[in-house]
Structures are given as structure tokens and as C-alpha cells.
Write a structure and sequence with these properties.
- This protein is of the alpha+beta class.
- The protein folds into 3 domains: 3-93, no CATH class; 98-139, no CATH class; 202-346 and 356-366, Ribonuclease H-like superfamily/Ribonuclease H (Nucleotidyltransferase, domain 5), CATH 3.30.420.10.
- It is 42% helix and 21% strand.
- It contains 14 helices and 14 strands.
- α3 (22-31) packs across α5 (79-88), α8 (181-200) packs across α12 (337-354) and α9 (248-261) packs parallel to α10.
- The chain is elongated, with a radius of gyration of 28 Å.
Length: 402
């Protein structure tokens, strides 16, 4: 059945839902004289099969109603509501925003309970009808003056190359939001750790060949070492670690961390010729296998790359170091080891889940089987990670350790 026949059939218009709401609604809008505005919340839309009849469309607190047969029978949005929304520019906001859950009991039985005004804008307040708890619906952002969108933007700008003070100036000019660079730094450290914890809990599915290397970074005027462990197949950065030295124990920590990030186990781990690598790899991933003589032999997946021109080189992790160096130059020098570790965790999240990898055509996280993040990726990551953190905190309160 064609669209023209659908429009001319009053029964069809009244009782069959529209899979493409824009096409028939747009036909109504295009005629120009089919919609009459009564008030700011009330409209009349002329019937397309019986022009002498007008359907009343009303909106109250983002809830749309119509007196046509289809809406009365199903309660779903009809073409008359769609036409008014199209004409008034409401299509982008047609999908209602998800209501938050109660911070205390996690119930969805909540109502709006006024607004709170602060320097960063207006914040909705809610009342839980189950337990009576009042909250703002900002799980994980309760004590932050800025909105979650601005915090996510700060992380995105920082890991794309802007300095702390450049971000402060950007917020001041664009949003008239006056904050200090220390505030931005606290956002970065806190939410980078939360986002990294969330990503590490997703059980990335990676390949069997890993690349492992270290590079020098400056922390408070002293040289420290940044360790990176990457999967060759998905380019997924499994672990980063910051240490003062590069001994056997330091080399082992990123490998141990990678074991908690993925259930996959490598058959080859390529490194340079530093003496700490064979021992660390053997301790974490070594195992007993039956050898050629059918005897139990210790297998160590550690492999030393001969040179940068060898068939199996460490070039991809060396290339990662170059990308990191371009980022750490803007950081100038880290202030302390803990802050540097948190920021490098944030960089790992940005590399794995936010920026598309040129060779893959997608993010390494997608290549590793982690669901794709749509829209503003840093904001969605913060929503996922803060929700997980609040849920875990609530479970810990409800079920304390004996």
C-alpha cells in the first residue's frame, strides 16, 4: 500500500502505527494549512480523509495526546502528534529522556520534586515514592558544581591535546563557567579511574599475540617508567603502569593486571631484550606443556624481537609511545605517581574506547568485543562507569562483609 493510499484511508490512518513517522507527518506539514495553533500547548490538526474534522493535539510536560482513534486505542504517538512536533522542531527530542532511579533504593517509582538553582544552571530534583528519599538524579556527580556534560567535555579536550589552563579558558569563554585548573585536574583523576574500572570489567576478547614495552616519562622532575601492554590483533591497550624503576617486579605488574582485564591468554609476548621481561612473562603466563619427547616442559610465551625490521617487531607499541609522547608534552610533567597513573588510565580509555583507530576503522574496544558506544563517547562512558560505581556502593551498604 502506498503512502497516498494510507493518507486517504481513514481507517488505516486511525488504527495502524506508522513505521516511518516523518513521511506522512511531513506531508501534513508541507500542505501549510493543516495545523492550527490554539495555545502554546494546544493544536488542531485537520483530518486527511475527512477535512471537515479536526483532531485536538495537546502537550503537557512533554507528554503528547491526541483525540484520534489510533491514539485512543493504543496510547502511541500518531501522525497528528508527529506533524505538530515536526512543524515545531521537536523531532530531535521525540524520544523521552530516561528518568533516573532512586539513589537509595534504586526504585523507578519517582516524581519530579522541584528544581535547584546553582552557578552552573538549573538541576531537577526528584522524590522517590517508595522510600521518600529526595535526590537530584546525578549519580556519581552529586558534589560537582558543573554538569556531567561539561566534565565529560573536559576529559575529551584534555586527552585530545589541550592543557588544563586551555580547558579553563575554553569553559570561561564558551559557557561563562569559572573554574580552576585544579578542579579540572580533580575531574580528570577521579573519572579516569572510574572509566578505566568500567572498561576493565567488560572482559575484552583479544588475540594471542601481545606486545610489551616501556618508555620514560617525567614526574616532578624525575624520570619514571610507563609500561604498555597491547594486543596485536585488536590494538586493544590491555594495561598501563607507572613505576620508579624497571626491575623484575615492575615488569610483572602490568602482566598481572592484564589477566584481570581479559580471559584470553597469549601464546606470544614480544618485548625488547631487557632482562626483566623473560622472568616476568614466565611468572605470569608460563605453564607446563608436553614437549617433543612427551615430557612435561616449562613453556614461556616470551619472545625477543630481533630488530625493528624483523617480521615480528614491536613497532605497534613503539608507535603507541609516540602518540603518548605527543600527549605528555602538553602535560609538561606530572606532579605525582598516583596522579600520573590515573591520567594514563584515562588515556588508555580514550585510546581504547573513544578515538577510532585508523587501521581498524573502529575503536580497539569494539574490535575486542566491547559494545559500541554511540553519541558523545566520554559522556556515555561516565554514565556507565558512575552508575556501576553507585550500584556497587549501594550493594556494599545493603550486604556488608561479615
Amino acid at each position: 500500500m502506498t503512502i497516498e493510499n494510507l493518507i486517504n484511508d481513514s481507517t488505516t490512518v486511525s488504527m495502524i502505527p506508522w513505521n516511518d513517522e516523518r513521511t506522512p507527518a511531513l506531508a501534513i506539514v508541507a500542505r501549510g494549512d493543516q495545523i492550527t495553533t490554539i495555545t502554546t500547548t494546544s493544536f488542531t490538526v485537520r483530518s486527511q480523509s475527512r477535512p471537515e474534522i479536526g483532531h485536538s493535539v495537546q502537550v503537557h510536560r512533554d507528554k503528547w495526546t491526541c483525540d484520534c482513534d489510533y491514539f485512543s486505542a493504543t496510547g502511541q504517538k500518531c501522525i497528528h502528534i508527529g506533524a505538530v512536533r515536526l512543524r515545531n522542531g521537536f523531532v530531535d527530542s521525540a524520544k523521552p529522556a530516561d528518568e533516573p532511579k532512586c539513589e537509595k533504593c534504586r526504585s523507578s517509582n519517582i516524581i519530579h520534586y522541584g528544581k535547584r538553582h546553582n552557578k552552573s544552571g538549573t538541576i531537577n530534583r526528584y522524590l522517590c515514592k517508595t522510600c521518600g528519599h529526595r535526590f537530584t538524579g546525578r549519580d556519581g556527580f552529586q558534589r560537582r558544581r558543573a554538569e556531567p556534560e561539561k566534565i565529560a567535555l573536559a576529559l575529551d579536550l584534555y586527552f585530545r591535546g589541550m592543557s588544563l589552563r586551555q580547558i579553563v579558558e575554553h569553559f570561561n569563554q564558551v559557557y561563562s563557567l569559572k573554574i580552576s585548573h585544579q578542579t579540572v585536574y580533580r575531574w580528570l583523576v577521579h573519572y579516569s579511574k572510574l572509566a578505566a574500572d568500567w572498561m576493565d570489567s567488560q572482559n575484552a576478547c583479544v588475540g594471542e599475540r601481545w606486545h610489551y614495552d616501556e618508555t620514560v616519562i617525567n614526574i616532578n622532575g624525575k624520570n619514571h617508567y610507563l609500561w604498555n601492554l597491547m594486543d596485536a590483533e585488536t590494538r586493544f591497550l590491555l594495561a598501563t603502569h607507572v613505576s620508579e624503576g624497571r626491575g623484575h617486579t615492575d615488569a610483572r605488574k602490568p602482566l598481572r593486571k592484564a589477566k584481570s582485564v581479559t580471559e584470553s591468554r597469549p601464546t606470544e609476548i614480544f618485548t625488547d631484550g631487557m632482562a626483566a621481561y623473560p622472568w616476568a612473562v614466565g611468572k605470569e603466563f608460563g605453564r607446563m606443556n608436553y614437549g617433543k619427547r612427551h615430557r612435561l616442559e616449562h613453556f614461556n610465551p616470551h619472545k625477543v624481537v630481533a630488530s625493528i625490521r624483523a617480521p615480528q617487531s614491536n613497532n605497534m607499541v613503539e608507535r603507541l609511545h609516540g602518540t603518548e609522547k605527543s600527549r605528555t608534552k602538553v602535560m609538561r610533567a606530572f606532579d605525582q605517581v598516583d596522579g600520573a597513573a590515573s591520567l594514563m588510565d584515562g588515556w588508555r580509555v580514550h585510546y581504547d574506547a573513544v578515538r577510532d583507530h585508523m587501521a581498524l576503522g573502529m575503536t580497539p574496544a569494539e574490535a575486542a568485543g566491547i559494545p559500541k558506544i554511540e553519541g558523545f563517547r566520554w559522556l556515555e562512558l561516565l554514565k556507565l562507569s558512575t552508575t556501576r560505581n553507585v550500584t556497587q556502593s549501594q550493594e556494599a551498604k545493603n550486604h556488608p562483609m561479615p
